[in-house]
Amino acid sequence: MKSAVHSTRSTSVALLALAALLGTGTVTADDAPLPTYTLDDIAAHASPTSCWMAIDGEVYDVTEHIAIHPTQPEVIGEWCGKEASEAWRTKGYGQEHSPVAHEMLEEIHIGTLAQ
Question: Care to name a GO molecular-function term for this sequence (predicted)?
Fold first, then answer.
């Protein structure tokens, strides 16, 4: 989604410029809001080479994580391009992901799911 990335960068630049004008200097690129994606946007990333998922209203780019996930790639691959909250919560058999997995999920957070 080149336009979403461009929009995020533009917003970040605008926030930094505003901070400079106001003399605050405390606004960083990390303060910029993340883009919002639709389920159609996510569906465009339904392969192991570009794997996005929606989980609990947030969007994650899982692509790089597939190679380090402890299961076979097909386990994650089944959820690429989809809403995967239930799969995340239960791993398909009622088992929650670990606290470490939750931390890793935050590292790949790319946006919010449009309502």
Answer: heme binding
Alpha helix (H) residue ranges in 23-84: 39-43, 73-77
pTM above 0.85, yes or no: no
Tokens of 90: 């239960």
Question: CB 58: neighbour CB atoms within 10 A?
Answer: 17
Amino acid at 97: H
Q: How confident is the model at residue 14 (pLDDT cuts 50, 70, 90)?
A: very low
3-state SS class at 91: coil
pLDDT digits (tens, 9 = 90+) for 60-85: 999 999 999 988 889 899 999 999 99
Among 89, 95, 91, which residue's Cα sits nearest to residue 76?
Answer: 91
What is the signed CA dihedral for 13, 19, 37, 58, rounded to 10 degrees?
A: 130
